[in-house]
Amino acid sequence: MGILLIKINNLQIPTLDDVDFVGKKLLVRIDINSPVDPKTGELLDDSRIKAYIPTIKELLEKGNSIVLISHQGRPGDSDFISLNEHANLLNKYLGFNVEFVEDVMGPYAREKIKNMNKGEIILLDNVRFVSEELIEAPPSQHAKSYLVRRLYPLFEGYVNDAFAASHRSQASLVGFPMLLKSSVGRVMEREVSALAKVFNPEDFPKVFVLGGGKVLDSLRIIENLVKRRLADRILTGGLIAELFALAKGLDLGRENMQILEKKGLISLVPRARRILLSGGPIEIPVDFKVEKEGGKIVEEPSNKVSGIIKDIGSTTMEIYSSFIKDAKLIVMRGPMGVIEDERFRDGSKKILENALESQGYLIIGGGHMISMLGGTAEVNSSKVHVSTGGGALLLFLAGETLPALEALDISSKEAIKK
Ligand SMILES: Nc1ncnc2c1ncn2[C@@H]1O[C@H](COP(=O)(O)OP(=O)(O)O)[C@@H](O)[C@H]1O
Ligand SMILES: O=C(OP(=O)(O)O)[C@H](O)COP(=O)(O)O
């Protein structure tokens, strides 16, 4: 092994400078999971796709042939789609042909991989089409999965560049490093080194703005932040705000309750209440923008909600903006509302504008909020870190060990046996 290992939380993780990936056939786990328009099925943002171009180019320039593997969405959701469109975008940004293989581990995919020539590149289809991928299990168990056993013998090395998925202990993230020589790619390397530099737990006040739809992840994140006293204020939006509103005893009306129930979120109310009782600095919206029967859009105070909640209201925007203005460090993940609908983008837009104008350092993550940046070219990189991660970013900042990084650490220590 080489010498440029990244050291975090006592883990030692090899980078591409530590491994001899030259002229090899490599499996490269990326995370190009992107927001999707539920009406048209089109990708709403391609920043995660663009982020991988340097890693891919570097590996190809070193004479490797590479097979890209990624997930997209979750079964049952409207963004659970094939990676066909992603392949077209990779083609466009790389400037040469990425072959899209509409299969993950079947005979067709394996044959294609076996017959690859040096310098060729394949994108496999959505790895979550294989049900084993969705199981959260330790690396040793995933190393025995069909997915890993079918694919690993075809490769000479594994690169994990999927920072945004590194909080998942899933087969394509933790299984392969148990059997193949492994390293992180440039995206993962950039994220962990940049975040270690810009996130100073001593900075004060630290404001976290957490919205979006992944409520279970957000609860886990908030529990960590509160336990380690890392946040001075946690401003909630999206579905997580609704959960904390219920935990504070607010009545959100029959329709919102039905929506939350359908998503299985009501059972999380006691957990949210425990966070509040332990003194968690949680702020909830004082008003919401709601859609009433017949499609009328109005703002309603949080204690008198009757329509379906779709965004934060304008008084909340003002209050949240004042907290953001005074912050030394702002961490933002997940939109304030249903941003796929133009009528409910204002809350996220206003909060983001204020964060970009503030004197504080801004760390922003999660595909949906990043899509609101409209291309990161204009962002001042000395004041803003645009992360490819959302949940992974927050858990990393909150001090959790991420399973995919842990697997690479185990892999590097076991390398001698490979
Ligand atoms: N009040 C709300 N009700 C339902 N869905 C919401 C609400 N607010 C935000 N969302 C949804 O949350 C989703 C984004 O959440 P998430 O995937 O957690 O964010 P990110 O991709 O940025 O990490 C969007 O599809 C958005 O429509
Ligand atoms: O988009 C992702 O996470 P994020 O919404 O927290 O940024 C990752 O691709 C992980 O996806 P998952 O949360 O369905 O495991």
Automatic annotation (TrEMBL):
Question: Can you tell me which residues bind substrate?
Answer: 31-33, 48, 71-74, 128, 168
What are the GO MF terms of this UniProt record? ADP binding; ATP binding; phosphoglycerate kinase activity
Instruction: Report residues binding (2R)-3-phosphoglycerate.
Output: 48, 128, 168
Q: Which domain of life is it from?
A: Archaea
* Keyword Nucleus in record: no
Alphabetized UniProt keyword annotations: ATP-binding, Cytoplasm, Glycolysis, Kinase, Nucleotide-binding, Transferase
Metabolic or biological pathway, per its Swiss-Prot or TrEMBL entry: Carbohydrate degradation; glycolysis; pyruvate from D-glyceraldehyde 3-phosphate: step 2/5
Chief subcellular location: cytoplasm
Q: Name one GO cellular component term.
A: cytosol
Which positions bind ATP?
Answer: 340, 366-369
> Which chemical reaction does it catalyze?
(2R)-3-phosphoglycerate + ATP = (2R)-3-phospho-glyceroyl phosphate + ADP
Q: Which SUPFAM superfamilies match?
A: Phosphoglycerate kinase
Q: What EC number(s) has UniProt assigned to this enzyme?
A: 2.7.2.3
Q: Which InterPro entries match?
A: Phosphoglycerate_kinase, Phosphoglycerate_kinase_N, Phosphoglycerate_kinase_sf
Q: What class of enzyme is it?
A: transferase
Please name the HAMAP family in this protein's record.
Phosphoglyc_kinase
Complex formation:
Monomer.
Belongs to which family?
Belongs to the phosphoglycerate kinase family.
PANTHER family, per this entry? PHOSPHOGLYCERATE KINASE, PHOSPHOGLYCERATE KINASE 1, CHLOROPLASTIC-RELATED
Protein name, entry field? Phosphoglycerate kinase
Identify the coding gene. Answer: pgk
